[in-house]
Design a protein that fits this description.
Blueprint (H helix, E strand, L loop, with lengths): L1 E8 L3 H12 L4 E5 L12 E2 L3 H4 L11 E10 L4 E10 L2 H11 L3 E4 L5 E4 L2 E4 L3 E8 L6 H6 L11 E10 L12 E4 L3 E5 L6 E7 L4 E9 H6 L4 H14 L5 H4 L2 H5 L2 E6 L8 E2 L2 E3 L15 H17 L5 H11 L4 H10 L1
Parallel strand pairs: 1-2, 1-9, 2-6, 4-11, 4-12, 9-17
Antiparallel strand pairs: 3-5, 4-5, 7-8, 8-9, 10-14, 10-15, 12-13, 13-14, 16-17
């Protein structure tokens, strides 16, 4: 059995930032993740500028392109707004792999199935033993499921399900090594409440000819209203097709139409317990996405760092204190504030 002081389950932004901060403080840590990085994860990929500061780095050192979006269009049934913005977006397949590789910690591909406690130890699959355990494995995180969900089940009404696809436009030559910070001339487009969807749809152009399309909605409300998310997804693809915004490969790809890549996450709503003894949860495992737009990357990184600080300090952090700290960052950022008005 392998003994280590801290095991982080999940190598995404929350887990990698937690592990990296622990390593920076000279602590022993191991990351377990069911996937092998780099792994594909379609996502709009919005990040705040302060993410680089949280990660103790400069954006100029990031080896992949950061898309700088200067124009945003918001489409409603009777309203069309267009205005200048200053937003950043990344590709998750690149960003997540980079954070994890920069953490300097050991990473093992392993799917955690069982977790039990034995005195001051956590035993994972009878193969790994640790004193501190961090669950950062997303919505289906085994740490959250085994140690937190029974105590405080997440609110069903706060579950968001999203479909997303990311692809290269065949009409734009792919640049293997674009500039680290690439201005995007095409606007980002957002459709709040698309065709009555309790959520929104998006079209995000990225550097190198990549485009991310997707939509997400409140799963409880979608079902209550007698619909399915796949219905909205097909309507959205048809809409993009009519506008000439999808190229022929996507139009002919039955898998994209029938089985888009999906993921779910909980919004920051209701009671949250983020720590039980020496076990912690962070990021989507803790349901820390913002309640207006479901943006979760920045909060994932912040929560991971807060957990690392708690382990290093060796003193329990109160749930109320962590909630207050993260709540400050869960307030809508400028674009979200505008969209929140449209939701009302």
């Amino acid at each position: 059995m392998q003994d280590v002081e801290t095991i982080v389950v999940g190598g995404g932004p929350a887990g990698a930032s937690c592990a990296g901060e622990l390593h920076r403080q000279g602590r022993e840590v191991l990351v377990l993740d069911k996937a092998v990085f780099p792994r594909d994860k379609p996502c709009a990929g919005w990040i705040s500028r302060e993410v680089w500061k949280l990660l103790h780095t400069d954006q100029a050192l990031y080896p992949y392109p950061v898309s700088r979006i200067h124009s945003l269009e918001i489409h409603g049934r009777r309203l069309h707004l267009s205005f200048p913005v200053s937003l950043q977006a990344i590709r998750r397949v690149e960003f997540d792999h980079w954070i994890l590789s920069q953490s300097g910690v050991s990473v093992l591909p392993h799917r955690v199935e069982t977790i039990r406690t034995e005195r001051e130890w956590f035993i994972l699959d009878e193969q790994f033993r640790c004193r501190f355990l961090v669950g950062a494995g997303g919505t289906a995180c085994p740490v959250a499921r085994a140690l937190f969900r029974k105590a405080v089940p997440p609110l069903t009404s706060s579950l968001i399900v999203a479909f997303a696809e990311e692809f290269l436009l065949s009409t734009i030559p792919y640049t293997a090594s674009p500039l680290p910070s690439t201005p995007i001339t095409e606007p980002c487009r957002i459709w709040p409440l698309f065709r009555g969807l309790p959520g929104y749809a998006w079209y995000v152009p990225k550097a190198g000819g990549w485009v991310n399309i997707g939509l997400g909605g409140n799963a409880f409300r979608v079902r209550r209203e007698g619909h399915t998310l796949i219905e909205y997804w097909k309507l959205f693809l048809e809409h993009l097709s009519e506008k000439g915004m999808l190229d022929s490969r996507i139009l002919l790809d039955k898998k994209v139409w029938e089985h888009p890549r999906a993921h779910g996450y909980y919004l920051w709503e209701g009671e949250r317990i983020l720590q039980r003894g020496n076990a912690f949860i962070a990021g989507d495992a803790a349901g820390l996405a913002t309640a207006d737009m479901g943006e979760g990357i920045s909060n994932a990184i912040r929560s991971g760092i807060l957990v690392a600080e708690a382990i290093v300090l060796g003193t329990p952090i109160r749930y109320a204190a962590v909630r207050s700290e993260l709540r400050r960052y869960s307030e809508p950022w400028p674009v979200n504030r505008i969209l929140s008005i449209l939701y009302r």
